[in-house]
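User: C-alpha cells for histidine kinase, please.
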Amino acid sequence: MKQYILMATAFFYSLPAFGQTFIHQVDSLQNLLKISRPDSSRVNACLALAKWYQKNPTNRSQAYLDSTLLYARQAEVLSRSLGSRSLLGQALLSKSKALIDPRARTDKQIDEARRALKEALTIYSATRDKLQWADATYLFADSFSSQDTSRLPYLQLALGMYKKIGARQLAAETLSEIALTYQLRGRIAESLRIYLRVLAIQVPFRDKSPVLTLYHLAALYKLLGNYPKALQYAYWMNRVSLRMRDTPYLSSSYDILSTLYEELGNHRAALQFRYETLRISEQENNLQAILTTRIDISRTLLALNRSQEALSQAKATLKLIEVSLPKFRLIASLIVGECYMAVRDYKSAEVYYKWTESNVQPINSPILTNINQNLGILNLKTNRLDKAALYLAKAYENEQHFKHPIHKRQILLALYQLDSTRGNTALALNHFRQYTVLNDSLVNEAKNKQITLLQIQFDTEKKVKDIKSLQQQNQLQKASINQERLVRNLTLIGILLLTFLLWLSYNRYRIKQRTNQLLESKQMEINQKNESLSHLIVEKDWLLKELHHRVKNNLQLIISLLQSQGKYLLDKSAISAIEQSEHRVRAMALIHQKLYRDENISQIDMRAYIQEVAEQLSDSFDLEHRIAIHYNLIPMELDVSQAIPLGLIINEAITNAFKYAFPHEQSGNIYASLAKAETGRYLLQVKDDGVGLPSGVDLKQSNSMGANIMRGLSQQLGSSLEVTSGQGLEVSVLFEVFNPRIIPTHAVY
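Assistant: Done. Predicted C-alpha cells:
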C-alpha cells in the first residue's frame, strides 16, 4: 500500500503554489460579485470563486470545500433563474466536483452529485457539447471509489468521446483511471498494458504528465518481480522530475528507487536514495515526509548492521513524532524496539514492544504480526519460554492472513529454537523442515534477485561503456563536423569577402568613373563660365570706362554751361557761386577722368588725386605762385564712394583758403596732408598760415554753402570734421576706410 500513499502525496504536492496570486484573484472576484447584477457575469463570478476554493493549494480544509459548494449552488440557482442551459451545466459540474471530493464525500453527497451529473449530461446531450459531456461522464465515474468496477463503463464512454474530439491528454488521464482500477483489483497484467498505452500518449507532450504513469509502471513491475524494468521506469521518472524541477515527484522517484534497491539487497544504494528523499522533504518543509523517511533510514541502517546509528536516528525521530505527528508513533516505537534488540538491550526493547502492543488497534494488522513476532523472539532470548510460545503462536496465526514469507521464515526459525530448547524434538524437526523449505525458496529468490542485480549492474556498466564510447565517437564526429563546418564556413566567408571586394572595387571604379565624368562636365561648365565671365568683366570694364568718360564729358559740359552763364551775370556773389560750383564739378570730373584713363576703374589714387585737385584750383584762381601748396600724403587708394566726398571737402577747404586766408594778395602757404591715425583711422588735414576766421565766426554753426557741404559730406563718410582757427585755419577730417563691398553706392553729387 505504500506506493498509493506516495501517489497521493505526489498529487497534493504537485499543485502549483499560486498563493499570493490566488488571494488577489479571490478579492477581485468577491468585489465583482458584490457590485454585479443578477446576470451571467454574477454566475461566472460564482463559478470562478467555486473553482478557486476547490483548487487552492494553500488551504484544503473543510471550510474551503464548504465555500466551493456555496458558490457552486449560488451559480446553479441563478443560472436556473436566467434560463441559461450552458451556465447551468457548468454550475452542476462545479457542484458535483465538490460533492465527490475525497475530503468529505458521503453517500448523501454522492447521490446528490450523481443527480446533478445526470442533469448535466442531459443538457450537454441537447447542446451537443462533446467536451463538457465527456467531462460530466468522467465525473460520474469518479463518483465511485477507485477500486469499484462500476466506474469502468463510464470511463470507457468518456474515453471514447475524448478520442473522438482529439483531446489526447484527457484521454490519457481517463486511461490512467481505468488502469488504476485494474491495479487495485489485482489485474496487474491489464493495468500494466493500459499504463504503457498512457505513457505512449503522454511522452510526446514533453511535460510532467508521464511522471505518475512512470511511478505506476515501476510499482507494477516491482510487484511482478521484474526489477530491471522497475528500475528503468523509476530512473525515467527521476529524470523527468529533475528536468521539470518537480520536487514532490522527484522525492517519490528517490523513494521507489530506494525501495527497489532494498529489495534487491543493495542497502547502500537504498540508503543513498533515502537521504536524497530526506533532503527534498526538508527543503519542502514537509514534516510527515521527513519523519517517515527518517524511519525508513533507521530500517536501512539496521539492514547494514549499523545498529547504534540506527538507534540514534530512530530515537530522535520518535521524539519529533510524539510532539508533531502522534499517528506515526506506533511504527516509530516498533523501529526503536528493533534497534534496541539489535544492540542486545532487551529490557529497553521490551518497553517499546509492550507500548506498541497496548496501543495497536486492528486485530489482524500486519503491525500486530510484527509486534507478536518481535515479542516472541525477545522472550526466547531472555529464556521466558512460555511467553515466547504464546507470542510466536499469535504471530504465526496472524501471518496466515498476510502471507509475508520473510516474517514467516523468522517465526518458523524462532519456533524451531523454542521447541529445541523445550526438548520437543518432533515439533522442532517439523518447524525446521518448514523453515528449510521456505528459506531455500527465499534464498533462491534472493539469489535470483542478486543475479538480477548483478545483471543490472553489468548491463549498466555495459551501457555506461557504450555511452562513453558513443560519446567519444560523437565527440570525434562533432569535432570532424565542426572542422568541416569551419572549413566550409571559412571558404564561404572567403568567397563572400572576395566577391564583396570585387563588387566594392568595381563599384568604386564606376563611382570614380562617374565622378570623373561629372568633374569633367563641371570643369567644362566652369571653364565656359569663366570665359564668359572674363568677357563680361572686360565688357563691364569698357562699359564703366565709357560710363566714366560720358560722366566726365557731361560734367565738362556742365562746367561750360556754368562758365557761359557766368559771363552774363553782373552780381559778384552770383558769379562767385557759379565759380564755386565749377570748382566742385571739376573735382568730381577729375575723378571720372582718372577712372576711365586708369586700368583700375574702382579705386582712386588719393595722393595723385589730391595734388591734381589742388593744382587745378590754383590754376583757376590765377595766383601767380604767391600761395604755395605743400603736400604730405601717404600712398593710398580709396573707393569712388569715399574718394568723391573727400575730394569735395578738399575742394572746399582749399577754395576757402585761396579766397579768404590771404587778403590783399598776400603770400602764404597751404598744407595738405593724409596720414594714418593711431586708432586705425586716417586723418586728412588742410591748413594755411593765413589770417584765419574772423572773431565770432564758427564754421560749425555757419549756414554758408561751403560749410553745409563739408558737414554733410563728413556725415556721409561717417567721419569727424574739426575746424580750428588760430595762426591760420585748419580743417581736419578723421575717417575710416570702408570695405567697398558694404559701402553704399548711392550718388554723392
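User: Anything notable?

Assistant: The first helix runs from residue 2 to 13.
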